[in-house]
């Protein structure tokens, strides 16, 4: 039986940007997945269900899978943020052009 699931998260304090592993204790196993304690060793029990057959899971069965999941999440985050930045730059340019157009109309 699986005793723990693993997940890597960001831990950025400027001097250390290495991904930080977190271990979650499995509380209960079901036919579809497991219940984990999000606050294992840190406080009152807070449960979360993890479907083990899901493509994208909150936590993984091995640290290696968790690291691969972290890399996939960060790659997706970069793609999303690049798209948001490009859209913001386009909107900024449109705003400047609109302002210039308004100023020309008042002359």
In short:
This protein is α+β, with helices and mostly antiparallel strands and 107 residues long.
Index terms:
1 helix; 107 residues; elongated; four-stranded antiparallel sheet; alpha+beta
Structure description:
The protein is α+β, with helices and mostly antiparallel strands. The chain has one domain (4-105). It has one helix and four strands; from the N terminus they run E-E-E-E-H. The protein has one helix at 63-105; strands at 4-9, 20-29, 33-37, 47-51. The protein has a four-stranded antiparallel β-sheet with strand order 1-2-3-4. The longest helix is centred in the last third of the chain and has 43 residues, at 63-105. It is elongated, with a radius of gyration of 22 Å.
Give, in spatial order, the strands making up the sheet with the most strands: 1-2-3-4
- Gross morphology is elongated
- Low-confidence spans: none
- Please trace the helix and strand order, writing H or E for each element: EEEEH
């Amino acid at each position: 039986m699986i005793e723990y699931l693993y997940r890597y998260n960001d831990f950025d304090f400027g001097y250390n940007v290495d991904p930080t592993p977190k271990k979650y204790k499995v509380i209960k196993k079901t036919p579809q997945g497991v219940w984990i304690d999000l606050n294992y060793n840190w406080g009152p029990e807070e449960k979360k269900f993890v479907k083990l057959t899901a493509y994208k899971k909150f936590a993984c069965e091995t640290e290696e899978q968790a690291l691969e999941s972290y890399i996939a999440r960060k790659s997706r985050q970069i793609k999303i943020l690049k798209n948001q930045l490009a859209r913001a730059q386009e909107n900024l340019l449109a705003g400047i052009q609109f302002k210039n157009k308004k100023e020309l109309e008042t002359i």
